[in-house]
Amino acid sequence: MDKLISHSAAWAALKAHQHQLAPIHLRDLFAEDSQRFERFSVEACGLLLDYSKNRLTRDTLSLLLNLATEAKLQDWIARLFQGEKVNNTEQRAALHIALRNRSNRPIRVDGKNVMPDINAVLAKMRQFSDSVRGDSKKQWRGYTGKPIESIVNIGIGGSDLGPAMVTRALKAYHHPRLRSYFVSNVDSTHLGETLAALNPETTLFIVASKTFTTQETLLNATSARQWLIDKLGDNNAVAKHFVAVSTATQQVTEFGIDPINMFEFWDWVGGRYSLWSAIGLPIAVMIGMNNFEQLLAGAHEMDTHFETAPFAENLPVLMGLIGVWYSRFLGATTHAVLPYDYCLELFPAHLQQLIMESLGKRVTRDGKEVDYPTGPIIWGTPGNNGQHAFYQLLHQGTHLVPADFIIAIESQYDLPGHQNAVLSNALAQTHALMMGRTAEQTKQALYSSGITDKMLTQQLPHRVFQGNQPSNTLVYKKLTPQVLGKLLALYEHKVYVQGICWGINPFDQWGVELGKQVASTLMSALRAEKAGLNGLNGLNGLKETAQAHERHDSSTDGLLNYIKAYRHR
Ligand code: G6Q
User: What is the rounded distance in angstroms from the CA atom of residue 165 to the CA atom of residue 102?
Assistant: First the structure.
C-alpha cells in the first residue's frame, strides 16, 4: 500500500458516517429495527456471532466492507494461504494455517511443500504422546522405570500461553494419571513451587523454545535439570526426563538433550501462533493425539471459512472490521474479552499476547508512521467473576469499552441450576450495558420503591446508567477440542484482518526483542558485580559493569546501585 489507508476515500466516508451516527444510542437502533438480531448475526462453523449490539447500521457495515476492499483484504488472505512471505520485516511466511491443514493440500514455502514435514512431526508427536500416556505397547518410563505422572512445560510467551490455555480449557479431556504444570517465570518462586510438589522419578520436562536462546526458559530448564540430577543421582537420567520443542537443533544438543528427543518446528511459525505445532506437545500428551487432531480440525474448518466465505458472512472479517470501527472512528482504546465458560479462564491472557503483540505497532509494513490508533488494549476475566469486580466501570464509567461475551450453552459439568445462572447473567449484562437506564426510568423505579423527593434528587445521578456500551456475543454448544480450535483460529484471523486494514505487519515483535537485549546487558552488569566481589574476575567484571552503566540512564543506574548496596548489607 503506497499511501496510508487513512488517506483513502473509504476512510473518509467512514469518518463522515461516524458524525451522523454519533448521537444515536444503541437503544434507538433497536427501537427502529425489530429485525436487528436477524440482520446482524451470523452462524458459521457451529459458532453464532451476534453483533447486533454494536453501534452500527447497514450503512456502517457496507462502508467497512469498502475499507476491506480498499485494503485489498481478499488478496492478502490469498497470500497468507499461499505461503507468501507476509511477515515482510522478517522475510517469512506465516503458516499456522499449514499446521492444521487437514486437507493436506500442498502449501509451499520457497517452492517446497511443507506438508510432509508437518505430517512427520505430527506422527512423532502421536508416537511420543501415546507412549507417555501408556496408550501404545512401549510405554515411556522414567529413569527408575516408573510411568510418567507429571508433565512440566518450560517456556515463555508463545511457548507457554497458548499451550497452557488450551491444556487448561480441555481439562475434561485429560488423561486421569497425568497432571500438567507450566513454568514460565524466571523468578525462582515459579519453578521452586512447582518442583516442590513433584516426584522426579515420574516427572517429564518439555523445554519449549523456538530459538532456544530465551533467558527465562534456559535458566528454568538448567535449574530443573540440576534438580533432577541431584534427586536421581545420575546425569544419564536426563534423557528419560527431558524433551525439547524447538527450531534450533544445535542449541538443543548443546543444552544436553538428544536430538532424537527433540520435536521440530519452523521459522515460519510465529511464537503466538505456535500451539498448533509441536509447541502443542503438552496438550497432545494431556488430551491424547486424537483430541489434539480434533483441535487442528476445528481450526482448519475456521480457516476454510475465512478463506472462502463472502465478507458479509465471514466471522473473522466482521469481527476485525468492527474492531477497526471502534478503535479509529469511535475512539475506543480497549477491548474486553469476557468468557462465560470457566474453562476459558486463560483465554483473555492468550488473546492479550496474540492481539497486543501482533497489532501493537506504529508503522506500516513499509515503514510509514501511522496517523491513526492501531491495536487496542486487551483484557478480561471470566464472567460472573468480573461482574463483581470491574463491570462497574463498564456500566457507569467514562470509557467506551467494546466487549466480546463468549458463551457456552452447556458447561463441562452438569450441576442443577448452575448453567441457567451463567446464561442469565451473561445475557443480562449484554442487555444492561447496551440499554442502560435513563433518568426517567430510574425516577419511576425509585418512586415505586417509596423514596422521598429529597432522597430522589440526591440519588438520581448515581442511579442512572448511560448504556450504549457495545458488545459481540459468541455462542457455541459446549467447549470441545474442535470448538476451541475454531474459536482460536477465529481470533487469529481477526488479528490478520485488522493488520491488513491498518497496513501493519502482525507477525513481527521487535518490542519483545528489545526487552530481551536490554535485559541481557543488565544481567551482565549484575553478574559482573558479583564476579567483582569474588575477586578472581574482579577487574573484568568491574569493567563490564562500567560499560553496561554507560549505556543506562541515571534511574536505571540508581536502581542497580541500590540493589548492589542492599546485597552488601
Ligand atoms: C511470540 C513472541 C514471544 C516468544 C517468547 C519465547 O510471538 O515471539 O512471546 O514466544 O519470547 O520465545 P522462544 O520460543 O524463542 O523461547
Answer: 23
Give the model confidence (pLDDT) of 432-480 as tens digits.
999 999 999 999 999 898 999 999 999 999 999 999 999 999 999 999 9
Which of 181-185, 193-197, 203-207, 540-544 has the least mean pLDDT? 540-544
Is 454 part of a structural domain of the chain? no
CATH value at residue 235: 3.40.50.10490
Q: Is the pLDDT of residue 311 over 80?
A: yes
Q: Do 278 and 314 sit in the same domain of this protein?
A: no
Rounded to the nearest whole angstrom, what is the distance from the C-alpha of residue 312 to the centroid of ligand 1?
A: 34
Per the structure, the complete domain to which residue 23 belongs is given by 5-70+309-435+469-508
Ligand 1 atom nearest residue 272's Cα: 7
State residue 2's pLDDT score: 67
3-state secondary structure 522-543: HHHHHHHHHHHHHCCCHHHHHH
The answer to whether residues 400 and 261 belong to one domain is no
**DSSP strand pairing (47-50 vs 403-408):** unpaired
The protein residue with its alpha carbon nearest to ligand 1, atom 16, reads 209
State whether 224 and 239 are in the same domain.
yes
C-beta neighbour count of 348 within 10 angstroms: 21
Dihedral of alpha carbons 137, 140, 143, 147, sign: negative
Q: Is the pLDDT of residue 312 over 70?
A: yes
